[in-house]
């Protein structure tokens, strides 16, 4: 079980992400494109092209969690800047 209060920083990876990508591909993007450590215990959020779904990648010290969310009504509103990483706080 993931306790949201125990999570570190959360990074919102702006831009369109192919939602077919899995753990290895998303970890590669984090490491190569954004020069961050996917094993850091931070949460990385990726948004799909239609903005009605996202994936979260999280390392808990034993393995990766890959969480997927699809909104049935509504869409995410995200900034439109490519190759941007944005850290958000728990209360946001």
UniProtKB/TrEMBL annotation:
InterPro entries: Transposase_IS66_Orf2 (IPR008878). It holds the Pfam family TnpB_IS66. It comes from the Bacteria. This is IS66 family insertion sequence element accessory protein TnpB. It comes from Streptococcus danieliae. The lineage of its organism: Bacteria, Bacillati, Bacillota, Bacilli, Lactobacillales.
